[in-house]
């Protein structure tokens, strides 16, 4: 009878233990890294956008006659400056408004004086912008600027933020699905390895090897293969993130610029390969121990 020392590793061919797990783990880790980066970036984007538009209100003075429009705009500005809950006030310059509309109306629309342009006033209110506050502000402006239209900035971006939030949850769900598939792949590979080495396992078990010793052979092999796959997948995921960040950064959009990953986000992404290796290790151990109880 052999002792209980862990000298059984060489009796089971390592090549028959886990099979193609490195490539499977590499793909899963790469997808997880990209999905996690997307979820974190979308969270940052949504958080920054909500902070930016919190308390934001836009006043449009929609009047075809330029002189009357300017008169109402000036009166509206004077009135808004006197309100105690207005903490920030800015009239959007015509040049900035032209730049916003130029992609939609063409390069020469600014030279066409027949196109009426509304006056825009950006306001930041103290506290939350509610429908009641919007109605109150509209009623306050009505006597001096009947052509004014009051809208909450959150109403404009609300559908966008809801879509971003849906994409974020979709990315998180994808990470959970990838984790479940990875566990299933390791479980199937470990069971196949156990079946392929059944005769050898029965012999070394009869010679005195314990369940824990046999399980350690499989779990060490699973951890090594998973570590190799995780390292490769992590590098692939980082490369994909770099390429996508460069492409989206070239858009020059203010909303996209707020979707960069922070230090804590990178730490969370860096933990993904270690989590993958730990899952493969634990899955192999649990699978082998359960199989041994039924086999021996």
In short:
The chain contains ten helices and four strands.
- Global geometry: elongated
Question: Could you name the ranges where pLDDT drops below 50 across 5 or more consecutive residues?
Answer: 1-6
| Count of folded domains | 2
Structural class designation: alpha+beta
Strand order of the largest sheet: 2-3-1-4
InterPro entries: ABC3_permease_C, FtsX
Subcellular location: Cell membrane
Membrane topology: Multi-pass membrane protein
Pfam family, one: FtsX
Q: Could you walk me through the main structural features you see in this protein, from its secondary elements to its overall organization?
A:
The chain is built from 10 helices and 4 strands; from the N terminus they run αβαβαβαβαααααα. With 296 residues, it is α+β, with helices and mostly antiparallel strands. It has a 4-stranded antiparallel sheet. Helix 1 (21-53) packs across helix 7 and helix 7 (211-249) packs antiparallel against helix 10 (272-295). The two termini are 17 Å apart. Mean pLDDT is 82; it is low at 1-6.
């Amino acid at each position: 009878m052999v002792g209980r020392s862990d000298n059984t590793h060489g009796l089971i061919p390592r090549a028959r233990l886990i099979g193609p797990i490195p490539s499977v783990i590499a793909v899963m880790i790469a997808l997880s890294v990209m999905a996690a980066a997307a979820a974190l970036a979308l969270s940052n984007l949504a958080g920054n956008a909500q902070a930016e538009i919190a308390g934001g209100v836009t006043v449009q003075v929609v009047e075809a006659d330029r002189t009357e429009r300017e008169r109402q705009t000036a009166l509206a500005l004077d009135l808004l400056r006197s309100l105690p809950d207005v903490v920030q006030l800015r009239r959007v310059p015509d040049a900035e408004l032209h730049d916003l509309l130029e992609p939609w109306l063409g390069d020469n629309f600014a030279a066409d004086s027949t196109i009426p342009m509304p006056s825009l006033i950006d306001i930041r209110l103290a506290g939350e912008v509610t429908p009641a506050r919007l109605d109150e502000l509209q009623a306050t402006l009505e006597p001096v600027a009947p052509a004014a239209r009051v809208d909450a900035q959150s109403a404009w971006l609300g559908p966008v933020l809801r879509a971003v939030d849906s994409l974020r949850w979709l990315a998180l769900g994808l990470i959970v699905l990838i984790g479940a598939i990875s566990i299933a792949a390791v479980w199937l590979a470990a069971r196949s390895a156990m079946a392929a080495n059944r005769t050898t396992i029965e012999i070394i078990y009869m010679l005195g090897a314990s369940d824990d010793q046999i399980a350690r052979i499989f779990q060490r092999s699973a951890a090594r293969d998973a570590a190799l796959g995780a390292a490769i997948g992590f590098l692939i995921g980082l490369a994909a993130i770099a390429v996508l960040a460069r492409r989206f950064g070239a858009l020059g959009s203010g909303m996209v610029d707020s979707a960069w990953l922070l230090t804590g986000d990178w730490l969370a992404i860096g933990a993904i390969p270690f989590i993958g290796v730990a899952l493969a290790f634990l899955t192999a151990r649990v699978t082998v121990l359960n199989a041994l109880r039924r086999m021996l």
